[in-house]
Design a protein that fits this description.
homodimer; 200 residues; alpha/beta; Rossmann fold; 6 strands; globular; P-loop_NTPase (chains A, B)
Chain lengths: 200, 200
């Protein structure tokens, strides 16, 4: 974990402290697991800072990430540390009353992004996880240019992590930190299926 | 996250359930961040299963991973979920009384591994994080062959995650799951230093 001297000192007129305190936009992409898992690991640090954490999952299954959700919700409920809001597309976003939302995934995804955009404008959270968010972008459900602009020009000091395979190039372009999770070996290669506690 | 049909069904005489329930040995390596962060993200799932979690950090600084440590200790202290033990080499391993342990890092690292080996034999934990463990292996402080054999032949159903750069090939060889975190872009490239809540 680099805490030493940066390789390049930019000529941007900022002090080291100003530069250090810039909000981070991170993209976790690649074919291998660990993208979301690392984002939720980052959320542990955010929680320890007492930050407001907002998780937005662009997935269908309500069971997805149930381990991480249960753990982070438990942390968010404690007196100490930050707060945690966890919203899932699969069940219909919690801020809407629509139960039939699942019938139109594209509309649900757009609705999710519209809410995130509002929250970014309001500076509602300190740390956002947009989990599996690359898929609705890839599928053309959400306008990539709008996302790029809204994240790039977000006010204040809001950190944003986007996870998912095949992150669009325009998004990678404006990210401060991009990690690619690459597969070297996976248990499924030798016929092992996912298991409780490890995969979910 | 793959929960479907594996690509290959091996001729190993095991049922799918037996194969599924095999303990996993994972290695998170590569030059980029996210290796430890993803391991602690996995610990959230382990906690949600009610598992006994043992974290062993092979690092000098007592402040390293303080966010993750505080959060996981808070989870471990709850009535629900699993238990969390967190041991750090930097302060002298908590099970020893030696205060001068820091003066000989190689000896401390060997002492840490000896304790992990005892715990594996006793099946003390369900989920182990051996954080930054590749370094004492690389530096020749701990015998790689001993580690490979002890992890490969561990009894019962104990999951083990090793993190760190440059994982030795022998270790990668026996791992079920190997992820390489690859750098696409890092804030330090443009002169940004690490910051609170993001890096630690």
């Amino acid at each position: 974990m680099p805490r030493g001297r940066p390789e390049v000192v930019p000529d941007d007129g900022l002090t080291t402290r100003q530069r250090r305190d810039r909000p981070v936009f991170a993209v976790h992409t690649g074919d291998m697991k660990g993208k979301s898992t690392a984002a939720f690991g980052m959320a542990l640090r955010a929680w320890n800072q007492g930050w407001s954490i907002g998780v937005f999952q662009f997935v269908k299954s309500a069971k997805w990430r149930v381990g991480e959700e249960t753990a982070l919700r438990a942390l968010g409920a404690l007196e100490e540390g930050g707060t945690v809001e966890w919203h899932k597309m699969g069940e219909g976003w919690s801020w809407t009353r629509k139960q039939g939302a699942e019938s139109d995934h594209a509309a649900s995804a757009r609705e999710g992004w519209a809410e995130i955009k509002r929250r970014l404008a309001e500076q509602r959270h300190d740390f956002y996880v947009l989990d599996e968010f690359t898929y609705p972008l890839r599928w053309g459900w959400i306008d990539v240019a709008d996302v790029v602009q809204s994240i790039r020009d977000r006010p204040g000091r809001q950190h944003v992590v986007v996870t998912g395979r095949n992150a669009p190039a325009e998004l990678v372009e404006v990210a401060d930190l991009v990690v690619e999770m690459t597969k070297i070996r996976h248990p499924m290669d030798s016929g092992q299926k996912g298991q409780r506690g490890i995969e979910w």
